[in-house]
Amino acid sequence: MMDPNFRRTVILLSAHNEEGALGVVVNRPMGCQLGDFSEEFADGALADIPVYDGGPVNGKQIMLSAWQSESMMGVFRLYFGIDLDTASGLMASPEDPTIRAFAGYAGWGEGQLEGELAQNAWIVSPVSPEMLDRLEGVNMWRTILGEISPELRFLADAPDDPSRN
Asked: Residues 118, 59, 4, CA angle at the centre, nearest 5°?
């Protein structure tokens, strides 16, 4: 997608229904932690949670999310838009979920995402918890595309400007 808000991004979609869709960009770390991002969190239990650029909508709003997988059971649990108490409780849980803060989010109105999908503006892939925890930045995007098909791997590795190849 050529829109700089979504160029080479991986979106974790959390809600999609007839009214629209909501998700966050999971591969744009901001290089800071929640305590650095906002004084409100500086001395709290959540101060060390990494902050990601979650998308172009309402960039000053912090959205907390957590996920965990049970590979033996093939289960992926997503806790999206959780409150501070829930996030603190998850941090103390023995399941050790991944918790992230997102500044902003990605949102689509009624029928908007369906239209973009019909135009092949997005490539849909199942959630891979291992990839979410292991990769960041453009490498996550490239790896996901590469796992879908060899053609997409080739395109993902191509330079933005082919004359610089």
From this structure: 45
pTM for the complete prediction? 0.88
Residue 140 belongs to a domain: no
Please spell the DSSP secondary structure of 86-111, one letter per residue.
Answer: HHHHHHTSTT--EEEEEEEEEEE-TT
Greatest alpha-carbon pair distance for the chain in Å reads: 52
How far, CA to CA in Å, does 149 sit from each of 61, 132, 139? Answer: 36, 19, 16
C-alpha count within 13 angstroms, C-beta hemisphere, residue 37: 26
Question: Strands 75-82 and 29-33, how do they pair?
Answer: unpaired
What would the pLDDT profile of 17-60 be if each residue is shown by its tens digit?
999 999 999 999 999 999 998 888 888 889 999 999 999 999 88
Q: What is the DSSP string of 66-79?
A: EEEEETTTTEEEEE
Say how far apart CA 70 and CA 119 lie, in whole Å.
35
Read off the CATH number of the domain in which 82 is found: 3.40.1740.10
